[in-house]
């Protein structure tokens, strides 16, 4: 699939659009393929305008700075995505990127599906209570009738500070489809009532690494037989997600340094999801599953990502002291923030938004201020 940058579509325009459009699944976005034709958006309910916003938050190691930026910018996000767009009814839910991995031997990754796409609704950090009504698992405000007390920002901040104990093999896409019941099974019991059929759906992915969603039972996370650079999958580590999830100019990112030296540096071009040639769930499959949730997906779905730019894509090698495996590959950050935090190239996450044409927003994870990108979103 050819990656293509698409202009942002204004949120207000998204809410009011009334043309028939086609979601192309099975080819490059906007380049034909087997399309999913949506109904005329004029047939969709217009009063009251409603939106369900799902925040997908990375809770693996080193994700705390990114979570902090999200919380600091949440008032701006709420203003742009809800209030300025004129939505009078909204749900806000939070899920983790932790879907577990392997047999439980990987640090932070259990063998039972991690947090399994279940909405997170407990108080964290310095919070003693979320402010949610008893039994509530997500934030709801329907025409001024709220299921929480206090400020929206405070309630969200208490829920969304997920910490850094989650699995380091982030499966953002699998978490989303599991949370929404788009993967062929009903959503978790805790998530019932969050997704409303006629409401707009905004998905906000907040992560410093690319998606590594693998099919159930995948050997990708094996730690028993794949432990060396010479083994079929290489040693356990995030580079597996790159090697078996991306193609750069038609080839996998190299596991071994070209000259055999740890000092080698390789910059790759044309990196896209490996789709059927890799070991991860194809982005196309995820786009199709999400589109099936709405009668008019191109009018009702917006994908936003606070993540690493897809480029530059550079592979370096590191010799670890006391490690006799040899130089291990590592994809370096595509951006670095002023506080030293960084984000890796999010090839697959950036690609997902392109299936939904202009209804996509990408904010660099290393930015402290989300206003410039959000201002661009408000312009048709």
Cα-atom radius of gyration:
20 Å
Which parts are unreliable, with pLDDT below 50 for 5 consecutive residues or more? Answer: 1-10, 12-24, 26-37
The count of β-strands is: 16
Strand order of the largest sheet: 6-5-4-3-7-11-16
- Count every helix, treating DSSP H or I runs of 4 or more residues as helices: 9
Q: Would you tell me the structural class of the helices and strands?
A: alpha/beta
- Global shape: globular
Percentage of residues assigned to helices: 10-25%
Q: What's the overall average pLDDT, rounded? A: 87
Distance between the termini: 26 Å
**Succession of helices and strands:** HEEEHEEEHHEHEEEHHEEEEEHEH
Beta-sheet strand percentage? 15-25%
Q: What summary fits the major beta sheet?
A: 7 strands, mixed
Please, how many domains? 1
Outline the structure in words.
The model is unreliable at 1-10, 12-24 and 26-37 (pLDDT under 50). The chain is 20% helix and 19% strand. With 380 residues, the chain is α/β, with parallel strands linked by helices. Helix 2 links the parallel strand 3 (50-57) and strand 4. The longest helix has 20 residues, at 64-83. The strands form five sheets. A seven-stranded mixed beta sheet has the order 6-5-4-3-7-11-16, with helices on both faces.
């Amino acid at each position: 699939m050819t990656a293509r940058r698409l202009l942002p579509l204004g949120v207000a325009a998204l809410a009011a659009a009334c043309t028939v459009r086609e979601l192309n699944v099975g080819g490059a976005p906007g380049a034909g393929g087997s399309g999913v034709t949506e109904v005329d958006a004029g047939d969709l309910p217009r009063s009251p305008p409603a939106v369900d916003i799902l925040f997908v938050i990375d809770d693996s190691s080193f994700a705390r700075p990114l979570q902090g930026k999200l919380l600091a910018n949440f008032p701006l996000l709420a203003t742009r995505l809800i209030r300025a767009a004129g939505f009078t009814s909204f749900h806000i839910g939070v899920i983790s990127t932790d879907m577990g991995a392997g047999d439980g031997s990987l640090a932070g990754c259990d063998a039972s599906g991690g947090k399994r796409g279940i909405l997170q609704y407990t108080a964290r950090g310095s919070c003693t209570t979320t402010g949610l009504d008893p039994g509530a698992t997500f934030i709801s405000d329907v025409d001024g009738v709220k299921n929480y007390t206090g400020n929206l920002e405070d309630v969200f901040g208490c829920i969304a500070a997920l910490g850094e104990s989650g699995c380091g093999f982030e499966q953002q896409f699998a978490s989303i489809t599991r949370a929404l019941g788009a993967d062929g099974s009903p959503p978790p019991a805790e998530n019932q009532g969050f997704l409303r059929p006629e409401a707009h759906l905004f998905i906000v992915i907040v992560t410093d690494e690319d998606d590594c969603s693998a099919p159930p039972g995948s050997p990708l996370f094996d730690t028993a037989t794949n432990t060396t650079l010479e083994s079929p999958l290489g040693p356990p580590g995030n580079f597996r997600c790159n090697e078996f999830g991306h193609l750069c100019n038609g080839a996998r990112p190299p596991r071994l340094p070209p000259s055999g030296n740890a000092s080698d540096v390789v910059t790759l071009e044309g990196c896209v999801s490996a789709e059927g040639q890799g070991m991860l769930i194809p982005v196309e499959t995820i786009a199709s599953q999400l589109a099936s949730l709405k009668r008019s997906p191109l009018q009702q779905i917006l994908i936003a990502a606070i993540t690493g730019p897809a480029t530059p894509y550079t592979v370096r090698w590191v010799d670890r002291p006391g490690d006799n495996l040899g130089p291990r590959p590592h994809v370096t950050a595509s951006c670095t923030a002023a506080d030293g935090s960084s984000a890796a190239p999010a090839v697959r996450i950036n690609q997902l938004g392109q299936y939904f044409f202009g209804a996509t927003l990408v904010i660099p994870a290393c930015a402290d201020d989300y206003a410039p990108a959000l201002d661009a979103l408000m312009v048709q």
